[in-house]
Write a structure and sequence with these properties.
Strand order of the largest sheet of chain B: 4-3-7-1-2-6-5
Oligomer: heterodimer
Shape of chain B: globular
Order of helices and strands of chain A: EEEEEEHEHEHHEHEEEEEHEHEHH
Strand order of the largest sheet of chain A: 3-4-7-8-9-10-15-16
Structural class of chain B: alpha/beta
Shape of chain A: globular
Structural class of chain A: alpha/beta
Number of helices of chain B: 5
Radius of gyration of chain A: 18 Å
CATH superfamily of chain A: Aldolase class I
CATH superfamily of the largest domain in chain B: Nucleotide-binding domain of ferredoxin-NADP reductase (FNR) module
Strand content of chain A: 15-25%
Largest interface: A-B, 34 and 31 residues
Number of helices of chain A: 9
Strand content of chain B: 25-35%
Largest sheet of chain B: 7 strands, antiparallel
Number of domains of chain A: 1
CATH topology of chain A: TIM Barrel
Radius of gyration of chain B: 18 Å
CATH architecture of the largest domain in chain B: 3-Layer(aba) Sandwich
Chain lengths: 303, 274
């Protein structure tokens, strides 16, 4: 049995396996299938200062080895989260992390300030990369200045671990990561979804209600892995890797590319117990290769 | 605990029924015709409690173009043989692969999901179950449960033609069955909303499952006739448990997940143009 615990700045994870925002609800939705306290961290659905209805249906299109979504940050707002959802999840024995989004730096900061008051939420994931909202979201994540402005505003109001979730829809993701690091981000997570599209040829119309959506699933894994590798070389802060991870070998690839922890997204839909299989699979691999700790494989690519 | 067979089915617990992800064993695949199969699934242990109208998210193996699970209505629960039935129309690659399953193979199922139909509160309540095409599937289990509780369900089943009418013999064992076909090859010619039974009798509740245009037509009729009516929606789904918010229906309470708050919704909650 190898040691699986890792640290993201001050945040201690019992193992490097987390669930990606928007794919695992508030954790409770999966409680019948998987022991939530066995997961290293649960990143809950994107939360904004005010309630959002999200985009119209249809919001999803199945694609080759993946899916597109354009949910558009549907949520009941941070006050509702604090009053109604937080009491239900605060005693789950793992890191419950809130994904925070907004339409201006002040929005983000105010939302994060509410979350800062919750004792059992040890970290936030700042979403500057949602491709499905008109204002904010990805708009901030595609320029160094935009990313820096949000991180700077939130850093003033939020005092615990801040992970910034990056968009892959950029020319040089490492530059964006460095801009976040310079403004005091504790970690970066990547990748959010890749902007994509699907068309119903009979109707001659896009399938998704807002025409485009974010692609996730195994289809994006090689792109995600390359970006994690580039970012991990460029920054000193811990990197959280995600993008199509479905099994332990996928997770180990991301960790060897430089990720300290990983997030599992769409694979939760295919197998609701996948997080436990990935955790156990990492352990088996480490045992088989004589590794005492999972930290031995972080960035362990050979030249 | 799943080890003891429980025949009691509580109508009160709606969204709190325990969900499972199990590799069920295919006990038989009955080919109904070129397009439809009945997949019968069993397990070493007693199958969990399920309510009529709930559904299963089935993982389709060996179908490269099928990435996500497929939501399929629970057609029937045969407690005597510890079987759950799924009625499947082979339309796309995924459902065609399901139709090729053989006895003894495993099928990974997440279930039971969703809320289920509303059980009549009184035995003398007149309930009409309206189904179209493969949408008749959940009405068989619903009808059986109504009958088991002393009620008398009436079925109004519509299809394109006689060959698309499914499980008629089973339905006839549970109650009165009225039929329409678009080509007139069985029952009255036309759509379910044209059937004479709707003129001749009054019902207290109508539960519908079928293609959306049919459900809209029935909902319109029910609204006009002031009859309680609920429909089973089949919005495109991903997670099946209310996590991803992809399958939403816009309602009087905002966007709700069809997979969790549905699939059965009262028409008064919907924002359909009725």
């Amino acid at each position: 049995m190898a040691a699986l615990n890792v640290k993201i700045n001050g945040l201690k994870l019992k193992n490097p396996v987390m669930t990606a925002s928007g794919t695992f609800g508030y954790g409770l939705e999966f409680a019948d299938f998987v022991p939530l306290d066995g997961i290293g961290g649960i990143i809950v659905k994107g939360t904004t200062l005010h309630a959002r209805e999200g985009n119209d249906y249809p919001r999803m299109a199945e694609t080759a080895s993946g899916m597109l979504n354009c949910v558009g940050l549907q949520n009941k707002g941070v006050n509702y989260f604090c009053e109604h959802i937080y009491p239900q999840i605060k005693d789950i024995d793992t890191n419950m992390i809130v994904n925070v989004s907004g339409s201006s730096p002040d929005d983000y900061a105010e939302c994060a300030a509410h979350i800062d008051t919750l004792d059992h939420i040890p970290a936030i994931e700042l979403n500057i990369s949602c491709p499905n909202v008109k204002q904010g979201g990805m708009a901030f994540g595609v320029t160094c200045e935009g990313a820096a402005s949000v991180v700077r505003a939130v850093r003033q109001k939020y005092h615990k671990t801040m992970i910034v979730k990056l968009s892959p829809n950029v020319t040089n993701i490492a530059d964006i990561a460095k801009a976040c690091e310079a403004e005091g981000a504790d970690s970066v997570s990547l990748i959010n979804t890749l902007l994509g599209m699907a068309i119903d040829v009979e109707k001659r119309k896009p399938i998704l209600s807002i025409s485009t959506g974010g692609l996730s699933g195994p289809a994006v894994k090689p792109v995600a892995l390359r970006m994690v590798w580039q970012v991990a070389k460029a920054v000193k802060i811990p990197v959280v890797g995600m993008g199509g991870i479905c099994n332990a070998i996928d997770a180990i690839e991301f960790m060897m590319a430089g990720a300290t922890a990983i997030e599992i997204g769409v694979a939760n839909f295919l197998d609701p117990t996948v997080t436990m299989k990935v955790r156990d699979g990492i352990n088996d691999w480490l045992d088989k290769h004589g590794c005492k700790s999972v930290t031995e494989i972080i960035g362990a690519l050979e030249d | 605990m799943r080890f003891f067979c429980t025949f009691a089915l509580s109508n009160l617990i709606v969204n709190n029924m325990k969900k499972f992800c199990l590799d069920l064993t295919v006990s038989a695949v009955d080919k109904i015709n070129e397009k439809y199969v009945l997949i019968r699934l069993t397990d070493d242990q007693c199958l969990p409690d399920m309510m009529p109208g709930q559904f299963v998210e089935v993982r389709v193996d060996n179908s490269p173009s099928t990435f996500l699970r497929r939501p399929i209505s629970i057609n029937f629960v045969d407690r005597e043989h510890n079987e759950m039935w799924l009625l499947v129309a082979a339309i796309g690659d995924g459902t065609r692969r399901l139709a090729q399953l053989k006895a003894g193979e495993k099928l990974n199922c997440m279930f039971p999901l969703g809320n289920g139909f509303t059980m009549p509160t009184a035995q003398n309540e007149k309930i009409l179950l309206v189904g179209g095409g493969v949408g008749v599937a959940p009405l068989l289990y619903f009808g059986q449960q109504i009958k088991e509780k002393g009620g008398a369900p009436t079925f109004l089943l519509g299809a394109r033609s006689a060959k698309d009418l499914l499980e008629l013999d089973y339905f006839k064992k549970l109650g009165r069955v009225f039929v329409t076909t678009e080509d007139g090859s069985a029952g009255e010619k036309g759509f379910v909303t044209n059937h004479s039974i709707l003129e001749l009798e009054h019902f207290d509740q109508i539960s519908v499952c079928g293609p959306k245009p049919m459900m809209v037509a029935v909902a319109r009729y029910a609204l006009k006739a002031d009859i309680e009516c609920e429909v089973s929606l089949e919005n495109n789904m991903a997670c099946g448990v209310g996590a991803c918010l992809c399958c939403v229906e816009n309602t009087t309470e905002g966007n709700v997940c069809v997979c969790k708050e549905g699939p059965v919704l009262n028409i008064k909650k919907l924002l359909w143009q009725l």
